[in-house]
Amino acid sequence: MPRPIAVQISIPALQHNLEQIRRVLTQQTQLLQRPDPKVWAVIKANAYGHGIDQAVQGFAQADGLAMLDFNEAIRCRELGWQKPIMLLEGYFSAADLALMDHYQLTAVIHSPEQLQLLEKQASQLQHPLSVMAKLNTGMNRLGFAPEQFEAAYGRLLQLQQQGVVAQLGKMTHFARADDDPSITYQQLQCFNQYTQHLEGRISVCNSAGTLTASLQQHLPAQPEQWVRPGICLYGASPFAALSAHSLDLQPAQTLTAEIISVRDLAPHQGVGYGHSFISSEPMRLGVVACGYADGYPRHAATGTPIWVEGQATRLVGRVSMDMLMVDLTSVPQAKVGSTVVLWGQGGPSVDEVALAAGTIGYELLCAVAPRVPRNVLEK
Ligand SMILES: Cc1ncc(COP(=O)(O)O)c(C=O)c1O
After folding, report:
1. CATH architecture classification, 253-377
2. Beta carbon of 206 within 6 Å of any ligand 1 atom
3. Does pTM surpass 0.90?
4. Which atom of ligand 1 is the closest one to the Cα of 232?
């Protein structure tokens, strides 16, 4: 028998979240009388911990999938995904380029080295390669410097004329779309200044950008736009100040476990390693079969929300490798075998847990350990 812990992935929640993003986009673009942007569903890092197979199923209605791992991209093709697949870091070697060619993947080209490699390998390609050229507008992670961009794009246009490049477009990535629109507007201004005169589709918005209605009016009406939402598709919020629930997103990942032991505590008793929590009054304590080796954050503090038998209560003491302790004083019906929701449907949001642990929902969703049994809710 496995330990009583499981992670559930909800296909209907993935579907709902994609539909919700499309509804939001339609509201934004209707006002501006523009066509709806197309959607790359970002499924990197094993679809933010939800599984590539589940993402392909849940995001069947997306226009494309974006990721950075070649094995994940190949898995999508093996599952029958025929629409575009974009590799967000592009290729790292000539062998990768050959794989992109074989599986008809779209390459982000963000560096002079990648561009050179494409020029060198051009004669080896069997099919024209779709490319998104990336401009660094202030994230300072990947992308051509603004003053390099036009020349780099010119070389790609030349390759397009030679039939080496198929569709060509321009992209950038926001550093602070979740917390500081003024920085995002500066990035957009830079993007428009250095790309507006160059033909080709555009892609700039992550989840926070996609959900910020006012951004659309700062983008050109033409050409075709593709957004790149990730975290919101999994039912977590990209914004610290806005809950996923308020954005009408549904959690697609739910981590549950059971209570495996219950005890009564007298006042002044220490709990767990380091006795970081000391009871101040009589209380009832439950031990839950979930610890940091399952992916629950060790830095979650006493008070982190946890739901037991459908009721909100709190974590107490330090999280151990395989167990954590929960306050059952306000849940008298709880007993060994009671269901505990660590995050997700019927429990706290992953964002609430992340906040209490000094991290972000992204990290928790990606970090559920392989030892945790998985099940998939199909309907
Ligand atoms: C280039 C790029 N686009 C889009 C995304 C999706 O971001 P988010 O999950 O915040 O929507 C990411 C994720 O980090 C990314 O690196």
Report:
1. Beta Barrel (2.40)
2. yes
3. yes
4. 11
